[in-house]
Amino acid sequence: MVLAQLAGSIKGALDRMCNAIVVDEKVLLDPGKPSFTPTKGRRPASVVMFVGLQGSGKTTTCVKYADYHRRTKGLSPALVCADTFRAGAFDQLKQNATKAGIPFYGSHTESDPVRVAVDGVDWFRNEEGCDLIVVDTSGRHRQEAALLEETRQVADATRPDLVVFVMDASIGQAAFEQAQAFRESAPVGAVIVTKMDGHAKGGGALSAVAATKSPVIFMGTGEHIPDLEAFDAKSFVSRLLGLGDLSGFMDKIHVIPADDNRSPYQILEELIKKGNFTLRALRLLFQAVQTMGPLGQLVSMMPGLISDKFNEREGQAKMKRYMTMMDSMTDGELDGTNAKLMNQSRINRVARGSGRPVREVVNMLEEHKRMVKMMSKLPNVKRPNDINHLVN
Ligand code: GDP
Ligand code: MG
Q1: What is the CATH number of domain 2-20+247-390?
Q2: Which of 60, 291, 316, 318 is the most interior residue, by most CB within 10 Å?
């Protein structure tokens, strides 16, 4: 039942669970050496070259990457289009760069990518104030020999500080071969996984990391320029393993406002720690869940705790009804300090006061009792003294 399962959303327990599972996978994502990071004011300007297959998201990501460093680190980036293979490549970069207000270089007539790349890099290196030059390259459909040779030549000629391998989240295991092929042509030093906003979980990133011995630095999460997120291994792995986005879930929990200085969650956590998952704690949990927006969203972030049968509308309605019933209880009843009061006559009163059937009040109390039992099984949660006091 959803209520009992929601009760599993206890920070400590989830964190421990997540850490235990993530440790191994995280090692797979961490090649042990950090990637080059462009810095403000660097002379000569840092050169970052993007490689990857056509459609992987290079052009889009080049612009996002340049914009990200300008926005968050105050760098002065510029873009160079060394894709002379695909008709319209320069126009696409030009359009995106113009939208972002980032200077760009390219040619409609020059067909030699090495030439355009070198001219562009030289141009911006002499440009006062420019400290980051992002070079977009061509990427045909397969890692054909000509493309890889072109990648090698552009890299040799522009001597980039960093070569970024861009991969689509949906490519899966094929990422290994792709990344390896590019790595043989250019010194790949970082990976960016794009289209993480789609259905794919991006498991191929593990292969790309293994093939390039480079870390994942960013994730593309949409088609727009700001849709680039710094890579967080923990959250990536928990999503990959179907554990849900634990960090995201924790963050949400913490932003819930409360009448006192503590968040309902903190109060809840304390109550549970004391082995005291009272009805008031349950009410706080509902309150917390309701301020977090659609339950479905929350549910999708929770690690396998929610049954497939979960129904958003029913879940919400039920929580509302339960809260109404709890509002008809006295403080003593909610806090479980005056449990003796929760006898048949009190149950009848609560039912009358909230306009709900007696049966439902009893159900709620029983469900709460089951939750208390479940809570007590979570690690580091004390067993309540008496879970039977609530219904008698
Ligand atoms: P390139 O051929 O490697 O240069 O790839 P493009 O940058 O042209 O991107 C190919 C398509 O993928 C375009 O339609 C982009 O808008 C789209 N795209 C790129 N990154 C993302 C992303 O993170 N999310 C989504 N939804 N679409 C993306
Ligand atoms: Mg492109």
Answers
A1: 1.10.260.30
A2: 60
